[in-house]
Amino acid sequence: MIPLSHFLILSAIIFTIGIVGVLTRRNAILILLSIELMLNAVNINLVAFSHYLQSITGQIFVFFIITVAAAEAAMGLAIIILIFRGKAFLNVDEINLLKG
Amino acid sequence: MLSFLFFYLAGVTVISSLLVISLRNIVYSVLALLVAFIHIAGLYLLLNAEFIAAIQIVVYAGAILIFYLFGVMFFSTNLKAKVIHHQYPIAIIIGLFILGEFIVAIYSSTFSMNRGEYTVQKIAEAGNTETIGMLLYGVYLLPVEIASLILLVAMIGAIFLAKRELKT
User: Where would a tag sit more exposed on chain A, N or C end, judged by fewer CB atoms within 10 A?
Assistant: First the structure.
C-alpha cells in the first residue's frame, strides 16, 4: 500500500515545476503548458484523496477541472493567436500594449 | 511491486515535467508533456480511477495537447533567441520556497479519517464508470449543466476571436 503522502509530495513537486515554468519561460504557449501542468498536479491530489477517503466526489471534481482546462486551452490559444498575429515570435516580453 | 510501479510512474512524470520547462524547442516541450500526461494516467489507474485515466488519455493527451501542437504550428520557433527569462534564479528560489512550504504543510497536518461509503469493493461491484455516471446525473446535475455552458461559451468565444481578426 502506497502512503497518501507520496502522492501529495509528487503533486507538490509537479505544481512547483509548473510555477517555475510560468515564471521563467518567455514563450506564451509554454506558459499555458505550465498551467496545464499545475492543473494536473491538482488532479493527482483530488484522485488520491478520493481513493484514500473512499469518496467518489474527488473524481467528479477532476472531470470538471478537465472541462475547464479544455475551455482555457481554446480561449488562451485564440487570444495568443490574436495578439501575436503581426509578430514573428511568441515572446511575452514584447507585449506592452497597456504601457501608454 | 505496487510501490515500484508508483516510483517508476512518479519519476518519469517529474523528469518529463522538468523537460517541459527546460527544452528549447516548443514542439519537444509539448511531446514531453504528452509523456507526463500518459504517466499521470497510469497513476490514476494505480488509484482505482479507470474512468478518469481514460479521460486523461482521450481528452487531455488526445485533444488538448494536439490542439496546442496545432497552435505551435502557427508560429515559427526562434531557436536562437533566449528562452529563459533573465531573472530565473529568483523564480527558482521562489519555487523551492513554495515546495518547502508544501512539504511542511503535508507532514504537519493530520488528514480526516472519516471514510465515505464508496469502498474499493463497492466501486468494483458497480463499476467505476457507472458509479461516476450515477452521481454525475443525480447529485451533480446542475454542475454538469454549468460545465456544458462553459464549453459552449469557450467554443463561441474562440470562433469569434479568431474570425474577427481574419476580416481586417
Answer: C
